[in-house]
Amino acid sequence: MASDSEEQSKQYALKAEKAEKEIERLQAEINLLSDPAQLQKEGLASPELEKLRGENQKLTFQLKHLKKNLENEQARGRDFALDVRGIIEDIFGLAIYSAFPEVPNPTILVMPSSKFADYQCNSAMSIAQQLGTITGQKKNPREVAQAIVKELPESEFFEKIEIAGPGFINITLKKEFVLKEIGFLLTQGVKPPKLDKKRVVIDYSSPNIAKEMHVGHLRSTIIGESMSRLLEWVGHDVLRLNHLGDWGTQFGMLIAHLIDKFPNLLKERPNIGDLQEFYRESKVRFDNDEVFKRRAYECVVKLQAKDPFYYSAWKIIYDISMKETYRLYKRLQVSDKLVERGESFYQERMVSLVKDLQESGRTELDEEGRRVMYVEGFTVPLMIVKSDGGFTYDTSDLACIKQRLQEEKADWIIYVVDAGQSTHLETVFKAAAQLGWTDKSKHRIDHVAFGLVLGEDK
């Protein structure tokens, strides 16, 4: 047994020794291959091969160097304009939050200034008021301004910061920075600033069917189209909407008059040469003829129920009116991206909205049998359903903003509407927030108001 064991041990030793020699041989080959001079000495590599290997190493080094330079150039270069005012707001925002962390949502107000400096920060006065409310003690705005300036970080943008008057902070930009931006403008042309792309829904123009566009509609159209082009240019996803007045009581009046004037209207399309005159005729009848008024209300009910005959009559009026509107749009060069989406579009959504509001206890009946919704901060409620069961502008505008937020996924909604609608729109915006449709951190809603043209009676 012992002899067998010794023999087995010898065999293992021989195998181990053989394996070690094989390892040594392989390591020698590896060392040889990695040593160009030894390869040449052994005759395994020619001088030409070694020369090519050297050239390859030089080219590899140059390629890495060029790539590095290119990365640096790309890092330095930009294809967008700087938002100078936005930069200043960001810097002063940091200083304000550092100086007054106890103030929730402080006002950061930076304005261009041509008189004393390049820009001016006017936040000190409003922050002083907020601090007074929080602490119960009056705060000097100039001291607030001094605290803000003290917290300003080092910046390559500012040449001089001065406090003037009761707390205005004057900001002078560095000449080198301004010259650099002018150079960019001259070499790169006018570029939009870099920003986060948003889904923008902009409501403008919005004429009434069967009525001529007045100067308010023209203003809304021109302002809204200009804003849409600018927002698209800077990179936002813009949806242009034309919130037409194409539903409600006036269409019952128009349809009833249309039926009387053109009994065969569905077979022979009527030729209404002057739709405005047609509207005036129907209005006179509506105001002076009780039988006609009752018929007009019946037409409204049938139209809202989408009765085929009455809906076809409505479409005739709609098409004639829009033909004239588009003639004007063409002269104004309004984008063909403007989408027709009148009050009629929201009919089914209004029905659903009223049902949801009623079931959730958000509405109540007033003493006249109208269903209303009270909105925090406003004494006059939104009228959701009239006593006769009809819907109102309040109903359609609530359904409208809900659709834009939830179906269109709007980040930013803009209403280009005259200043006379300010209170109504503020109520609708607050109602949307009260119903949980809007989130201040995600949504922005603006009313771009313009003035009214008044008659001699003011």
Automatic annotation (TrEMBL):
Q: In Gene Ontology terms, what is a biological process of this protein?
A: arginyl-tRNA aminoacylation
Which GO terms fall under molecular function for this chain's record? arginine-tRNA ligase activity; ATP binding
Family matches, as SMART domains: Arg_tRNA_synt_N
Query: Per the UniProt record, which EC number(s) apply here?
Result: 6.1.1.19
Species name? Elysia marginata
Pfam families, A to Z: Arg_tRNA_synt_N, tRNA-synt_1d
Q: Which GO terms describe its cellular component?
A: cytoplasm
Key word Cell membrane present in the record? no
PROSITE patterns for this protein: AA_TRNA_LIGASE_I (PS00178)
Q: Which keywords fit this entry according to its UniProt record?
A: Aminoacyl-tRNA synthetase, ATP-binding, Coiled coil, Ligase, Nucleotide-binding, Protein biosynthesis
Record-given protein name: arginine--tRNA ligase
Please indicate which superkingdom the organism of origin belongs to: Eukaryota
In this chain the Arginyl tRNA synthetase N-terminal domain maps to 86-173
Q: What is the lineage of its organism?
A: Eukaryota, Metazoa, Spiralia, Lophotrochozoa, Mollusca
Report the family membership.
Answer: Belongs to the class-I aminoacyl-tRNA synthetase family.
